[in-house]
Each structure stands twice: as C-alpha cells, then as structure tokens.
C-alpha cells in the first residue's frame, strides 16, 4: 500500500499533472452530479422566463427558450464526456490492435495497414461526420463513430512506432530464443511496455474528442435537441451575441476547462512516464 501511495504521489510532483487532474476532476464531478441533481430541468422550456439574468434561482441565467443555463452546462458535460469516452475507447482498441499487428508482422502487412491509415487521415472527423450524416442522419452515435474512425489511425501509428522500439530490445531476442511466438511476445512484453505511451495519447485524444464533439454539435451533426450540448449552446448563442454575450461565454469556458485540463493531464503523465525527465528532477 505504501509503495502504491508513493508511486501515485510521484505524479503530483508535476504541476501540470496536478492542475490537469483538478480541472478534469471538476468536469467529471459536474457530469456525475448531473445524473442525480440539477438546479432545474435542462430541457424544460419556459419562454416567459427567457434571458433572465444571473440570480439565486438561475445561477447562469436562462437562454432564449427559458431553460436554465447552468443545468444545461451540467448535462452538456455528461454528454461530452460520454462521447469522448466511447469514441476514444473504440479507437484505442482498434488502433492499438492494428499497430501491434503491423509491428509484429512487418512486410506487406505493415505497409498495407499504414497506407490504410494514411487514407483515413485524408478524411477529417468533420468530413467523416458529414458523410455519415448523409447516410444515417445526425446524432450522438454518428458523431462518436466519426470521431472514432478519425482517431483509429492515430493510435495505430503511435502503437506501431512505440512497439517497433520494443521489438528491437535484447529481451525480445531472448524471448524468441526461448521459443515464444509473436502473439505471446506481443501480449507479455510489447503491450505492457507501451501502455504508458498509449495512456498519454489517449488522454490527449480525449481532449480533442471533446473539442470535435463540440464542433460537430455546433454544425448540427452531434447530439440532437432536446439533449443539451456545449457546441449547440454556442451555436444558439451566436444569434444573441450582442444582446446577451454571456450565453456564449459559459459553454465556451466549459469547453476550454475540459480541453485544457485533459491536455495538462496528458503533459503531466508524459513527464512522469519519461525516465529522462524523472532523472533530471
């Protein structure tokens, strides 16, 4: 137990990790609380109460439909995190598997997988979402699919690069000499030694996934009404930017906090996992 505590405490020596975990924890806690409590309904329309200012009853005021903005921010956090978690989890799973396969087999298999990754990179998440929307219509599921498809080649390339470095190590040669096959070496030696790289990359891509979800929702390709979304809140607020500019500030700050927190968290993890930086400190 004491060793685990010391190991965890090592991460908090890095300021960017501490700030990142605090900001990310704030967003996560907000999303968690929204499952059980919000000051008001996030979808209840009360046009008579539209554009009410900040007050004890409505902490962030109300929007053009009279909905409580603070409640919408809370539920929007839940939706953004859900999209990011599902999309990144899917892309980590498939991308890591493809990268490990390319690194283990080499030759034409590696070349084919990497060229497929190049092809996927030619279609950004927004363009992929537009194509998916044209086929199946807008929605959170299709936004998740578009973000996941875009991120698969990212993880495939990162995994392949990190795994290639592991395959060149002496203990891999020893494992081969001991009669271990490629699959067993990959599972027992390669994957455990590149987990730190994958964790850092997943944290960074999580931040980008939240940003992409907000962008897709802003374009009307993400979560559909009546479910709140930070991106759609920004789109709705632009029509009233000069009358009630704070309507755009609140979701914009929420997106900034989430993305900044995850980026700082990723930087802190990278610093903690990098043995060269650890030795310097």
Instruction: Report Rg.
Output: 22 Å
The secondary structure category is mainly alpha
Q: Secondary-structure element order, as H and E? A: HHHHHHHHHHH
- CATH architecture, by name, is Orthogonal Bundle
Main sheet: strands, sense, barrel:
none
* Count of beta strands: 0
Q: What is the helix content?
A: over 70%
**Distance between the first and last residues' Cα:** 24 Å
The CATH topology label is MetI-like fold
Supply the number of helical segments.
11
Enumerate the spans where pLDDT stays under 50 for 5 or more consecutive residues.
Answer: 1-6
Tally of discrete structural domains: 1
Summarize the structure.
The chain has eleven helices and no strands. The protein has 281 residues and is mostly helical. The two termini are 24 Å apart.
Account of the protein in words:
- The protein is built from 11 helices and no strands.
- The protein is mainly alpha-helical.
- The protein has one domain: MetI-like (MetI-like fold).
- The radius of gyration is 22 Å and the shape is elongated.
- The model is unreliable at 1-6 (pLDDT under 50).
Give short descriptive properties of this protein.
disordered N terminus, MetI-like fold, 0% strand, mainly alpha, 281 residues
């Amino acid at each position: 137990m004491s060793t685990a505590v010391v190991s965890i405490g090592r991460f908090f020596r890095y300021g960017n990790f501490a700030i990142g975990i605090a900001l990310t924890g704030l967003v996560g806690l907000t999303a968690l609380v929204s499952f059980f409590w919000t000051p008001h309904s996030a979808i209840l329309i009360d046009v008579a109460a539209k554009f009410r200012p900040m007050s004890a009853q409505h902490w962030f005021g109300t929007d053009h439909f009279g909905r409580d903005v603070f409640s919408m921010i809370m539920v929007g956090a839940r939706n953004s995190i859900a999209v990011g978690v599902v999309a990144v989890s899917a892309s980590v799973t498939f991308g890591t598997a493809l990268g490990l396969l390319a690194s283990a087999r080499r030759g034409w298999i590696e070349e084919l997988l990497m060229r497929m990754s190049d092809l996927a990179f030619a279609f950004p998440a927004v363009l992929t979402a537009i194509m998916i929307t044209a086929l199946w219509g807008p929605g959170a599921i299709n936004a998740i699919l578009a973000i996941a498809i875009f991120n698969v080649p990212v993880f495939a390339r990162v995994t392949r690069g990190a795994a290639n470095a592991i395959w060149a190590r002496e203990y891999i040669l020893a494992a081969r000499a001991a009669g271990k096959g490629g699959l067993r070496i990959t599972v027992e030696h390669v994957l455990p030694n590149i987990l730190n790289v994958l964790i850092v990359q997943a944290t960074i891509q999580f931040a980008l996934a939240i940003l992409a979800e907000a962008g897709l929702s802003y374009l009307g390709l993400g979560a559909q009404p009546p479910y709140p979304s930070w991106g759609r809140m920004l789109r709705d607020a632009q029509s009233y930017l000069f009358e009630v500019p704070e309507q755009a500030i609140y979701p914009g700050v929420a997106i900034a906090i989430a993305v900044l927190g995850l980026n700082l968290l990723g930087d802190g993890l990278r610093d903690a996992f990098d043995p060269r930086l650890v030795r310097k400190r």
